[in-house]
Structure formats: C-alpha cells, structure tokens
Amino acid sequence: MSRVLVTGGAGFIPSNLIRHLLEHTRHDVVSLDALTYAGNLENLADVMSHPRLEFVHGDIRDAGLVAEVVGGVDVIVNAAAESHVEKSIEEGASEFVTTNVEGTQILLDAIREQPVERFLLVSSSEVYGTAVRAPMDEGHPLEPRSPYAATKAGGDRLAFSYRVTYGLPIVIVRPFNNYGPRQHPEKVVPRFVTQALSGEPLTIHGDGHATRDWLYVDDTAGAIEALIDAPLDTVAGEVVNVATGTDISVRAIAELVLEAVGSGSGSVVHLDERPGQVDRHIGSTEKLARLTGWRASVSFEEGLERTIAWYRENEAWWREILGRARVFSS
Ligand SMILES: NC(=O)c1ccc[n+]([C@@H]2O[C@H](COP(=O)([O-])OP(=O)(O)OC[C@H]3O[C@@H](n4cnc5c(N)ncnc54)[C@H](O)[C@@H]3O)[C@@H](O)[C@H]2O)c1
Question: What confidence score (pLDDT) does residue 330 get?
Fold first, then answer.
C-alpha cells in the first residue's frame, strides 16, 4: 500500500486513473493540478471527499510546492501536461515546453533530493511520429511531428537520462490514443460524439485516413496500476507502450459514432488536413504483457458505447466546456 502522487488529476486520464486507484487498490492518492483550461474539478466531484484522496491545487513548475508534495509520497505518476496537439500548433510551444519538459525536470530533481519508490512518467505514443514499421514497438524511432509531441519526447528522454545518470527508479509509459468519459471535447472522439449528439456534422481533418491505436481510458488506468504494483526490478528503467495492437481510422470512427448515436445525427464535413498529422499509429503490446501480464480488455465497440452513454448522461458537463471562449478543433 503506497501513497501515490498523480499529477494533473483534474484532467481526463488522470481523473479516471484516480477513480480506478481508489476503487480497485488500497493506495492513498494525492493529486497536484494547476487547473488549466483542461483541468476540471467536476472530473473528481464524486471522489473529492474520499478519505484516501487529497487534492492540492498547484503547478508542477513550482519547485517549492513540488518538493513539499513529493516529500509525502512513495510513488509518482506524472500525468500533468499540456496535452493538445492542435493547441501546440496554433498557439506555439511555450506552455508545452514549460509544463511537459521543465515541469518533468522539476519533479525529477525533487526525487533526487527526496527519493521515492518509483516514478512513472506518462509519455505518449506521439513521440514516435508516424509508423515506419507496424506494430510500433518501444525501439521504434522517435520522430515527433508536432510541438506537443516534441515536448513529450523531451520529458520522456529527460526521464530516461535521470534513470541512466542517477539510477532513479523511473518507468516511462507510452500510452497510445485514449478515449472515454471526461475527455475534453477538443479531442477527436468526444468531438465526434458531442457533434453527433447535437445533430451537427462531424468535422474530419483531411480525408480521415489517419489511423490510431485507440485505448479505452479504464484500460490505461489498469496498465498504470500494473506498473505501480509490479516488482520494481522488472520495470525500473523500462519504456513500455500501452496499446491494443489494433488501429482504426478517424473516418471509421466517425461512421461508428454516427451509427451508434442513431437517427437525427448529421453527416460528415472535411476540413483541411492538420499540419504535423501522424498517418498511422499501431502499438506493439508485447512488452507490457511480458513484464506485467497486462493486456487491454475493452473492445473499441464496447468502449465507444460506454463513452457515448457517458456523454449522453453528462450533457451539462460538455455543454459548459463548449460554451467557453475557445475549443480547439481537434
Ligand atoms: N489523451 C490521450 O490520448 C493521451 C495519450 C497518450 C499520452 N497522454 C498523456 O497522458 C497525460 C494525461 O493526458 P490527458 O489527455 O488526460 O490530459 P488533460 O489535458 O485532460 O489533463 C491534463 C491535466 O494536467 C493539468 N496541468 C496542465 N499543466 C499543469 C501544470 N503545469 N501543473 C499541474 N497541472 C497541470 C491540467 O489542469 C489538466 O487537469 C498527459 O501527460 C498526456 O500527454 C495522453
């Protein structure tokens, strides 16, 4: 039983991870979140008063606060990030560099001073760029194609260097594309779902041929739990994909969403192709299965059904976000 710091806890993956840890493990959880436009306390509303959860409002770039929080925990899952590719393209990389690279550096330096049992860096499959071979294993070249992806690669490689240089108990986790409840509608699956539920046309960048390896968010939470609980010597210093081993095109997802939402939902409109587009992502699942026995268990059809049901039931949640000043297009 450990005390686990999950940074970025009011975001999509981290809030689902926190709920998973509270429900399925006996770990205590601390979250540190700056509550940027992407952070939403509603994502934790049902667990906020849980006796095993502490929420700290603050920034991973605040070295003093980070030292204070890190001093009281055994395990760190650094999931806080500027996470939206399109925003990094349109607004520039500044916030992405400071949070995704410098924020990671501040956390890594904190554990040099105050050792922890293990540190999981939530990196991303985006660090690979587009597949030069399939499936993409952890040795696939790193060719990040957007400013977001480059900053994730920066944090990923910085963590690796701290492992090599200082022998710290670091695990680098590269999830492929996640979808599920509580994902900001700037991202493609919830954008399609909320557009379909509103009876609007679904907006696709380019012809929609680009594929991704789609992972239901509860599966990712299970993978992170497995990496927290695995014997340290089996995972320390390792880089691991979290993937399903199957890829689905954006166009196919649009069709599945339209079909699942049913009558009254609109058609599809094509926008310009996104600069920095990744054509294909399909992850190798072998290494994580070998190290921990974990494999994804939710099929895309099942995950999509659960996701649509959540967005149907939580219309006020996404309408409030859509009503704010700006939502990036994908
Ligand atoms: N969503 C995906 O498909 C996906 C895939 C692979 C990897 N990832 C990675 O997983 C992690 C979570 O992604 P997500 O989609 O849930 O992100 P998200 O944008 O939904 O949540 C990010 C959270 O981090 C917080 N945050 C941002 N900057 C911060 C800072 N400086 N200090 C403290 N908190 C800060 C935000 O307030 C927000 O609550 C990120 O590291 C992301 O790069 C995401």
Answer: 45
